[in-house]
Structure formats: structure tokens, C-alpha cells
Amino acid sequence: MSLCDLSPDQIHANPHILLISSYSPDFPTVFHQIDGVKSVLSPEKVDLDIEFMDAKRFPSLEDINEFSQRLTKKIRRLPAYDLILVADDSALNLVLEKQHELFNNTPIVFFGINEQSRVGLPETNPFITGVMEEVSVKETIDLMIQLQPDARTIIALSDDTISGKADVEKFLGYRSSYPGYNLTVLSLANLTWNEYAQKLQAINQSSSVLLLSAFKDKNQVTTDFDKSLLFIKQNLHVPLFHLWYYGMGDGIVGGALISQYDQGRNAALMADLILQGTPPSEIPVRKDSSNPVVFDYHEMVKYGLNPSVLPPGSTVINKPASIIVEPGTIILALFLIMCLVLVIAVHIILIKKRHKAEQKVSESRVKLEMIVEAKTQGLEQASKELSTTQKKLLEYIQFLTTREKELQKSEEKFRNLVQDIHNILVTFTPDGVITYINPYAERFFGYTADELVGLNLIGTIIPEDTWNDKDTNQFIHELESSSEKSKQGENANRKKNGEIVWILWTNRAIRDDTGTVTSVISVGIDITERRKLEGAIQEANIKLNLLSSITRHDLLNLMTSIIMYIHIINENPDDKENSLYLNMMSSVLKKMRTQIEFTRDYQDVGVTKPGWHDVGVLFRRSASQFRERTVQFSNEVSNIEIYADNMLEKVIFNLIENSLRHGMKVTQISFNIEIAEKGIVLVYSDNGIGIADDEKELIFTRGFGKNTGFGMFLVHEILQITGISIVETGKADSGVRFEIHVPNGVWRRISDL
Questions:
Q1: How large a percentage of the chain has pLDDT more than 70?
Q2: pTM recorded for the entire structure
Q3: CA end-to-end span of the chain, whole Å?
Q4: Given this model, what pLDDT does residue 704 score?
Q5: What distance in Å separates the CA atoms of residue 93 and residue 65, rounded to the nearest whole number?
Q6: What are phi and psi of 144, to 5 degrees?
Q7: In this structure, which long-range contacts are made by residues 537-543, counting pairs with CB atoms below 8 Å and at least 24 apart in sequence?
Q8: Which of 218, 419, 460, 604 is the most exposed, having the fewest neighbouring CB atoms within 10 Å of its CB?
Q9: Cα 484 from Cα 494, distance rounded (Å)
Q10: Burial class of residue 380, CB neighbours in 10 A (0-12, 13-18, 19+)
Q11: What is the C-alpha to C-alpha distance for residues 521 and 435, in angstroms, rounded to an integer?
Q12: Residues 25/52, Cβ–Cβ less than 8 Å
């Protein structure tokens, strides 16, 4: 029988177990935990699948949701699991959230969990048990005080990861236990990595440092444990203590340490009991964590710490091995002495032979001296010639040294000039690789020089969709063939935060002796406001033409109708149908008033400079004006600002009014947000009768519609001031769906400010 002939149940004859790790395979604890699990649940006993959340580097709700969706898809295509193992808090939170959907009635064993609220889980959830991770914070603080008695400040290094915040809470909870000591926290949650380095460098010998967690800074820039530890050690000049075994041997002094291997093994033992038939509810959560005291001898010697103060039973790694005298050692020593005597005897024989050889060497030396004397006379003559050459060479070296000093002074003057100018300055190679940016350019684009140097202009400060290799080749060709010293041009550029700006560049080529361009110096001026002003002038001209056409053409036509009705009435003053003509005149006058009101609104579009607006607040404010209507409003947009004309609220108001006027059966209106590759999409929808397919593009044209024909046209005009577009994508009879596309650089999160 081949593998293809087996059923899924036959392929998984062993119990099928899923291990979900909160972290990635690069995280130092992960394979210690897995090795502990496999020491009990070997491949011969179970089929073990492993999934990695990578939640240290990607902790956002969006990242976790993406992992959850992938996991759900896999689980629904695989045979059911017999047991779930979860390592650390993020994985447990996910499994608890998905328990009824994916793991209903499936035993769950957790380990590496340091949230004390999980201790009582089995009492409320009969399918769960596990091993708590009880860090020995107090025991380690006691060790720090014993080893550094003069350090009155104890600093905990942490960040805002789930485990980091939990450990900080425990650490600060011991403040009252140490009167006279200052227990404080240095958290990456409030610092960038560069600011963090400065804080670490400022810590002196009056402080003792305990590492809890350091993976993510305030800008959400993450790294792994090894790089984080190396970064801390490069900037810290005092001993570094820890609560976990990983890091020992790489710069950690020590502490009362948790063993991830033991955690994995203990969880696997619980899982083995469950697989043998014991219900999880009958296996109590293991709350104790016997953490051994472990220290690194090399690190203790480096910082002058006394190992004798360590408590009995402590483990000291990397300690030099001591010499142990055993009976067998004496026998070995006698054997070595006998060997030594034999070697001496052989050595005496060799000395006699060497004496005879020396006599022959002496005779040869006399002959050699005669040859050397003859050669010396020739070398003296050559030396005189070499001396003359050497003098010339020294003079040339002195000349080069003088020129080098002059060049260094010139470069220093140039660098000082470049550093102080208040313009953007960038140098790059002909293929676009950045070689230098000045401080003003760093501040303008939001990048540091270290972040940009070595990267290509395309994809960093120049968007990829506005530039390509063909453009770069043409740019260099124009510089090479131009008779002018410099060449100007303007193009769109992108800041680190995604904002698009326009810059006028003055480019100058640097050539080698053959005339080939080796690099380019570009000096830039921000012309974004000028471009916006030019666009505003163009929009103003369009508006003036439109207003003129409305005023001159439409109003004249309507006035002609009124004059005609007046003429009919004058000719037949007693006609009974005169009241009909008066009503028609009234209707025409209402249309004239509507058009005049539109010109009043339209003339305000683009008059003032656009600004940043909280669209969630504008929707709530507009919706509040329709409270008397029996309609339910749903607003899922928050923490988002867009750069738009100051009449943006009129857009939202017109959309709501349009729904209530034409939707016929509208009872629900919602406002949501979708993240797209090139920006965001604000989605406005209702549950009315919708818009016919052949009218979707016409609704934004002036004069189209069942009422004034101006509302949706005004919406389109207001949005396009800052490059925002709107389309209708709903289905007829199922309600409207307006998608407002806001490009990158025109939206931002308020929390990022």
C-alpha cells in the first residue's frame, strides 16, 4: 500500500498536536521550549505541527488578525487536532479568542504564561491547564543588592510588549519592600532606539540594571533578542542582570533564571497525561517556578563582582576548571618522568652529533664571509645610488603630505558650508545610490543619513510609480551632454511619513578625468506650496468660467420663461388659467434661487487654504443635524485626519441629505474605512434603493438629478481640490456605496502626531 492509498486517519496514526508559539524561530527561547516539549512528546509518539506568530516583531492587531486568518484556513483543511500547546501570552490570547470556533472541546495546555489572571482558567474552562511562568523578580533584586551594595538605584529595562508590561508591574510592586532604594523603569515605549542608547550611556556605577524586555521602540521599530542585547551591551557600562536563561554567555551577568526547556518539558508531561485519558480539569495549573541562581564567571570578573556572596547551590558558568589530584594522576606522573629521562638521553646523543656539525658549519662560515665581503663592496655602491633615490622619494612624499593637508582643509570648509546651508542637498551615483545628505535634508525628509546612505533614490525619496530606470538613464545622459554646468528640474518626492512634496532641483555632474559622470550633486528647494497655488489658480479659473456660464446662460433662460408668462397674463388679464402661469413663474423663481445658492457655495470651494480634518468628527457632526429622522447612523472611522478643502463637512452633509432625499427606504447609514496600498478608502453606504448602473458616473455632473442637480457635483468639486476622488460602486436596489479614495500623503493617523 502506498502513502497515496492511506486515509487521513491512517496517515495521522499518532496523536495530532499543534504547538502555537507567540514568537519567531529566531527568538532565543523558542527552540529551548520546543526541545523541552520534544523530550517528552517525541516524533515516535506524536505528530507535532508548529506555527509561529512572530508577535514580538509584528504585535499590531492587524498583524495578529492576518496570522489568525492564515491559521484558520490551515486548520479547516487539516484533520482535527487531538491537543493544542500554546507558548507565551500572545498565543494563549489568540487560542482563547478562537477556542469555540476552531478548538471546541480540544484540550489546551499553555506554558510560558506570566499573566496571573490565567491561574484560574481551569475553574471556568475545563479544557485548559498549563504551566505559569513565575519570574523571580524579588530574588534577583536581592542578588543585585548583594553583588552591588553601593548601587542605590535599580533600573528595569522594558518596552510595551504584553510580557514586558506584565513584568514591569511585578517589578514596581516590590518598591515598598526596599526602603532606601529607588526602583525605576527605563522603557523603550517612550524612546527611539537612538534616545535609548543615550539613556543607557548615562547610567553610572550608582545604579544596578535588570533586563525585562527590549524589542520595540516608540516608533514601532522592532528587533530580535540577540541584536537588542548587543545594542544594550554596547551602550551600557554596568552589569546587566536577567530573569531568563537565554542571553547567558552573551553578556548577561546572571540572576534567578527561568528555564524555557523545563517549561516546555513540564507542559509536555501534562499533555502526555491528557493523551492517556486524564481530563485537563483534573490537572492543576503549575504555579510554582523553581528558578535556579546562575551567573557568568567572565562577566563577574569583568565588573569586579564577588562570587563568594552568591547563595549556596548557585551555578557559575565559564568558571576555570580546577585541578583534581587522583591516584591515577601519580601513576601518570611516574610514566611521564620515565619518558623524560629517555628524552634526555636521546638529547645528549644529539648534542654530540650537533657539535661535529658545528665544526663543519664553522669552516663553511669562513668561506661565506669571504663571499660576503666581495658582495658588500658591490652593495655599498648600490646603496649610494639608492640613497639618492630615497632623498627624491622623501621630497615627493613631503610634497604629497602638504597637498593632502591642504585638501583636508578644503574638504572641511566645504563640509561646514554644506552642513549649514538651509537647502536640501543630496549626492548620489549615476545609478541613483545616495552617498550623502546634509542635516537640512534629514530634517526635511524625516530620515537620518544612516537610513538613506547606500539606498537608491527610487523607492525612498522618489516614489517608484513616478520614476523608473529609463528616467534615470535619460537624466544622466542629459547631464553628460549638456553644455551648461548645472541643470534644473522639478518632480514629486516623498517624505518618510508618506507625504508627497514637490522640489525644484538644481543638478550638477561631477566628472572624472575622462569626462564621465561619477556622481551628481543636487540642491533642492521645496515648491509644494507654489504647485498648490498654481493648481488653485487653475481651479479658480475653471470655477469662474462655470459661474459665468450659470449666471449668463441658465439664469437668462429662466428669466426668458418668466417674461413669457408675464406677456401671456398681460394679453389675457382675465383668463382663468393665469393662476397656472403664476405657479409656473413661482417654480422658475425657486430654480433661480437654488442656482444662486449653489453659486454662493461653489464660490467658497478652494478659497481658503486646505487643512487637516478629523473625518470621524465631521460625520458625527453632520449626522447630528438629522436626529429627527428615523435613521440609524454607524460610524467606524476614528483617529483619521485627511487634508482637504475647508468645505469637507459639506461633502458629508450632502451625502447624508442625498440618501434621505432619494433613498426612499433608508433606515441605516454607515461610514467605514479600508486601508489600501496607495492610501485609504472612506466608504459611505446606506440601505436605500441605490443608483442605477447607467447613472453612476452621471450623478457627479452639474445639473443631473431629480432635485437641483448641484449637490453631488459640489461634492466632487470639493474633494478634487486636494486630489481626492469619489466613485459610486453600490448595487441597484441594495443601497448606495460611495468610495472616497484618499491617496498617501493626504491622510494621517492622529495618534502618530
A1: 75
A2: 0.39
A3: 65
A4: 65
A5: 12
A6: -60, -40
A7: 539/606, 539/721, 540/606, 543/602, 543/603, 543/605, 543/606, 543/717
A8: 419
A9: 28
A10: exposed
A11: 10
A12: yes
